[in-house]
Amino acid sequence: MAAEGTKLGRMKLGSEGFEVSAQGLGCMGMSAFYGPPKPEPDMIQLIHHAINSGVTFLDTSDVYGPHTNEILLGKRRIHEMMGALL
Question: Is the N end or the C end of the chain the one with fewer CB atoms within 10 Å?
């Protein structure tokens, strides 16, 4: 869901009709290339904020770790599921 007063557009990705938010979240700076890795709790909070704001395109790559940002996204999902259980 987009934050109140915010509307993210959608766009097709590729030729198969898959749609994502027009604005994405680039994850490269979370773990590499722009100084030391950022604190994991802060990055999980940022991912939550992006998704709660309507972002559905999260840009990751094995080059950044490998798998570092993909694991971070998985931890975000675990945090979300645990919150639903509490």
Answer: C
**Distance between CA atoms of 65 and 58, rounded to whole angstroms?**
16
| 82's tokens | 């645990």
Single pTM value for the model: 0.77
76 CB-contact burial (10 Å; exposed 0-12 / middle 13-18 / buried 19+): buried
Separation CA 55–CA 12 (nearest Å): 14
- Does an H or E element contain 28, and which? helix 28-31
Nearest to 66 by CA among 24, 26, 28: 28
Is 64 known to be catalytic?
Answer: yes
Q: For 25-71, how does the pLDDT look when each residue is reduced to its tens digit (9 = 90+)?
A: 999 988 888 888 899 999 989 998 998 899 989 998 888 778 888 88
Task: Check if the beta carbon of residue 47 is closer than 8 Å to that of residue 25.
Answer: yes
